[in-house]
Amino acid sequence: DVKVTQSSRYLVKRTGEKVFLECVQDMDHENMFWYRQDPGLGLRLIYFSYDVKMKEKGDIPEGYSVSREKKERFSLILESASTNQTSMYLCASGPGQGIDEQYFGPGTRLTVT
Amino acid sequence: AQTVTQSQPEMSVQEAETVTLSCTYDTSESDYYLFWYKQPPSRQMILVIRQEAYKQQNATENRFSVNFQKAAKSFSLKISDSQLGDAAMYFCACSSNFGNEKLTFGTGTRLTIIP
Questions:
Q1: Residue A84 touches chain B, beta carbons under 8 Å
Q2: Quick check: B36 and B92 in contact, CB under 8 A?
Q3: Cα A108–chain centre separation
Q4: Mean pLDDT across chain B, nearest whole number?
């Protein structure tokens, strides 16, 4: 079975804290993605990576950074968490072609207080 | 740039009946792909069905089928013989052949199945 795992299902952090969200895939996929899901807004792409150490900004990169040191792992970093970053964060991976399916992790519900 | 619009935030259907979820999109790409993803409550997002824009034939996966109208930029999902397990958020999405499979999602439709 293909699998994308995320380090936490629920996370509560304080404003100003540095937050790390980890994602691991076991399918040897080239591409990995971080999305943010908010009610009424759907999923919005934050960052994606098409190779180790490579990254590209998505539609809403402000306030976030990413790291991909190994092919199977893609981390999302909130340098200084703010309350408007309270959201559901979804990680996904895919083999690399436009027709290909993306495989999603279970999501991390982050609350910033 | 691509945009995807789902105009029905919520839908409901009686068990065993048929329901159609609407989606319209806009893209400047000549070669693109369309998807419907399903997110059951507290469970992971999974692919339901996909359509290659250059194919005229509508995709079908068991009880799920699409009505792809390329000129109208419309991509609706039909669920036949609805089952309780079909209850979920459904997202329409679009990707470009040249965009490293980046997906642009709609805002989603919450489908409720009435027993």
A1: no
A2: yes
A3: 9
A4: 93
Shortest distance, CA B60 to any CA of chain A (angstroms): 16
pLDDT tens digit string along A86-103? 999 999 999 877 678 899
Contact call for B50 and A33, based on CB within 8 A: no
Q: What is the DSSP letter of A29?
A: -
Which amino acid makes up residue A33? F
Confidence category of residue A53, pLDDT binned at 50, 70, 90 = confident
- Tens digit of each residue's pLDDT (9 = 90 or more) over B31-62: 889 999 999 998 899 999 999 998 889 999 99
Q: How far is CA A14 from the centre of its chain?
A: 19
| A98 and chain B in contact, CB less than 8 A | yes
Signed CA dihedral, A29, B50, B12, B109: sign only: positive
Closest C-alpha among B71, B36, B34 to residue B53: B34
